[in-house]
Amino acid sequence: MQLLSSPTSPFARKVRISLIELGLGDRVSVTDANPMGEDGVVAAANPLGKIPALLRPGERAIFDSTVICEYLDAIAGGGRLFPTPLSLRVDALVRHALAQGVMEAAFSLVMETRREEAARSAYWMSRWAEAIRRGLLEMSKREGVDPSPFDIGWIAQAAAVGYVEFRLPHLANPEGSGALSDWWIAAQARPSVAATRPPG
Ligand SMILES: N[C@@H](CCC(=O)N[C@@H](CS)C(=O)NCC(=O)O)C(=O)O
Questions:
Q1: E strand or H helix at 3, and its extent?
Q2: Pick from 28, 32, 34, 124: most CB atoms within 10 A?
Q3: Is 11 in the pocket of ligand 1 (CB under 6 A)?
Q4: Given the CA of residue 52, which atom of ligand 1 is nearest to it?
């Protein structure tokens, strides 16, 4: 299988961390693909034109990042990233939803700041920045400085926090988020998180 990815995409990082956590690194090759490129490679795999996408020989490609992670969890035996007991599953999925929302707001904000100044929406930029601030504060309220198992919620949280730190460092440590900084220091010591750091 082949993962269309990029070293800076937080959504792709979520999948790359999952691959390592599940021990599936040797079943999937990771290929850099530019969703903004004109070569049509990404759109051929995902009509939405987004990465990550997982190409499977002779079978339909899988997107988006959450579906890929659920598929990988299943082929690794199931129940590790997406726990089966309902209360654990819902807890992991809500943490995942929070982190995914922070990634989406952060990605939108980064893309908006790349537009010409006159074309930018101050309203949306401030709304996304607020969502990131509240999202990080909510993460810092959650228990899990030593999260075990490292489920899909913690994996997404690592990808989200890492992306904000990488692209929007001025938003990365809102006042009152000290517990999240502690969590992030511990999370970065995991081989899966360390190996997928964005470049630079
Ligand atoms: N919901 C998707 C989001 C993926 C996404 O937005 N990827 C970005 C790269 S970080 C992308 O390909 N954007 C291209 C676009 O929005 O046209 C997922 O979780 O996989």
A1: strand 2-5
A2: 28
A3: yes
A4: 20
